[in-house]
Amino acid sequence: MSTGSLLLWVVLPYACAVVFIVGHIWRYRFDKFGWTTRSSQTYESRLLRWGSPMFHLGILMVIAGHVVGLLIPREWLYAIGIDEHMYHLGATWLGTAAAILTLAGLAILIYRRRTVGPVFVATTPMDKVMYVFLGAALFFGTLATLVYQVFGSGYSYRESISPWIRQMIIFQPHPEMMEQVPIFFQLHVITASLLFALWPFTRLVHVFSAPIPYLFRPYIVYRSRDESRGAGARPVRRGWDPITTPPDNRGRRRR
Amino acid sequence: MKVMAQMSMVMNLDKCIGCHTCSVTCKQAWTNRSGVEYVWFNNVETRPGVGYPRTYEDQGKWRGGWTLNKRGRLKLRDGGRLHKLSRIFSNPKLPGIQDYYEPWTYDYDMLLNSPAGEHTPVATPKSLLTGKDMKISWSANWDDNLGGSLETMDQDPLLAKMSEEVKAEYEKAFMFYLPRICEHCLNPSCVASCPSGAMYKRAEDGIVLVDQDACRGWRMCVSGCPYKKVYFNHRTGKAEKCTLCYPRIEVGLPTVCAETCVGRLRYLGLVLYDADAVAAAASVADEHQLLDAQRSVLLDPNDPAVIEAARAEGIEEDWIAAAQASPIWRLIRDYEVALPLHPEYRTMPMVWYIPPLSPVVDVVTNTGNDGEDANNLFAAIDKLRIPVGYLAELFTAGDPAPVELSLRKLAAMRSYMRGVSLHDEHDESIANAVGMSGAQIQEMYRLLAIAKYEERYVIPAAHAEQAHDLEEMGCSLDFEDGPGMGGAGPFGSSSGASVPVAVENFHSLKNRQTADRPSSPGRVNLLNWDGNGKPDGLFPPEEKK
């Protein structure tokens, strides 16, 4: 086990995971106001109407595929009757379809972002950086699937990458599992790790605001003004102790 | 019965001269920021006209508000929860910014810095979205005073509902102004549409607000509101809307639009309503019954049972007293001259309107008859189908009877009071013709025509025991580049607008905010006085009698 391997397959993913988690907590506590999709639909909706659902549905399929492929041990799938061949067919073809949907959607969205004037003006530097890493992770992931799974002989990542991730999750890292993994899979893992580190500082945070509770709440929301020193009042920031003054000293009209 | 209080507004359209002062002062107070350049929490539309955003009343296109499903129960016109979530990645019913208008500024620098030449330099319009040159082709009140309306008028969704003959005559017939703010509905469809639960109706006073920290920019509120009075800040990615100037309302002041209205046509006050009855009233099958249903949801503040129930809900005595003195209650229920805007949207709007009689008076006067004579006016209201039909589409889902009754009452008031002023005669027959007494007519006249400040605005302040908290309360729009343009320094700030950062201010504020007693007892430093209140020592003590 070399130092490089240790850095790439233990230190980097853990560091990215820490930044991911702490970053989200920090941002949620101190930048709730910035926590938004920052939609650009008011500027342009014709391209968005195709690109956005394509990308989002595609990426949801991709995420579901990753959960099944990486987190669920294959013995469990065998137990419910999904053997290696069935899994391979499903993962390859569904995965490829999802990848095409996602990449085509992303292409439309990036084209729109670049060519529609108001949308381009509203693009922040962070958006651009995020697009690079998101695009890279998607690109290497798709490339790995195409090169090894579709056109190649098939690489069984469920014997290397999947156990590596599960070992990482239970804090018993085995970096050597990743050493023999084909290069595009390795690049996919590295770019994805970096994307996760970037995540809390980009608009990608909106993923964690998926409005599932909407399905279960009553339609009309009532809120009392008294709940937190008045509706809309933000909690006092850490480090800012509220300075109270005697009422008589304030020079305010008493009502 | 669950009694709740609702701060509401009535506008007397007869007195609106379309000066846009309300719009401008509101804009200066709330939306003079980037991201909301195109947003007018208050706007004034010329009717007939297409409105702002264009054709917002065409719910076949925009699908805002509520409708009834096959079982006669309320549902959002644009679909329920699952349907909304299924279209969260791209909301097909969201108005584009072009449906409002593309905001612009002018290249003023050109006027100052262009080289000497033969021609006067011109400040060309520049888009605030792209920074590029643009051709101005629409705005928030492009068809003001029916300007250019021959081209756009046929897009008015209300005229489309009326007959051809009426359409052909409208421009000769009448024109009036319709100032609009958020309706602060009892059954708000924007709140129901918000996937994040960031929009809410305040339990104390019914003001509908957006929690800026909880909004995630899903934009469903914009399409959910049939009045299109929730706006998307394209810079911050959050929804914003009319707040009914709640920081002012909480201290007993009227909203900015009402305070600055030169026609003094706005009324503000509380009504008590039965929150348990709202859903049933909004589900009445016959659209023409919605007005009466909404009236019946409002509770008589003088009824002992209502007062008892209000106390049980924790409504304070001064709020009950304010509801009893409310001009809103009198205009809606005692006189029944005020009508809601588009009750057919089933949101139970709480900004009501007194329909304009002036177009009718003008028509009568133009025919050479006495435009203030009761009989002439009554006959004209009956005969002039055009204004009544159009007003009915606005205020009563197309039912002409309540509009006629309201106009007849206004006409009776005119004639009756003319008799009083000119001949000192109290012609009770005029009053009786509209089911009122002369005394009632005079009361209504006082409220509508004399319109004293303290009678127009009956606003109970938020509670004394809460007042200290409210004083330095944060404001939902007080964020970076918000109206207040950022936070105060570590010592807070004086009231009013933010002061420029300077070391003098810093020290004076530090002294003022950290001292536990006046720095020089008995004397007041006028440089630190922010104009509010009466510090000790500013004036000599009052003589005791």
Tell me what the structure shows.
The complex is a heterodimer of chains A (255) and B (545). Chain A has a single domain (8-215), classed as Transmembrane di-heme cytochromes, Chain C (Fumarate Reductase Cytochrome B subunit, Up-down Bundle). Chain A has helices at residues 3-30, 46-71, 74-79, 84-115, 117-121, 125-150, 161-169, 176-179, 183-198; one strand at 222-223. Chain A is an all-alpha fold. Chain B has 545 residues and is an alpha+beta fold. In chain B, 37% of the residues lie in helices and 12% in strands. Chain B contains 26 helices and 15 strands. The chains are: A mainly alpha (255), B alpha+beta (545). At the A-B interface, helix 2, helix 5 and strand 1 of A face helix 3, strand 8, helix 25 and helix 26 of B. Chain A: Its main location: membrane. Chain A: Pfam families: Nitrate_red_gam. Chain A: GO terms for molecular function: oxidoreductase activity.
Output the CATH topology of chain A.
Answer: Fumarate Reductase Cytochrome B subunit
Count helical runs of chain A. 9
Mean pLDDT of chain B: 86
Helix content of chain B: 25-40%
Class of the domain at 367-450 in chain B in CATH? Mainly Alpha
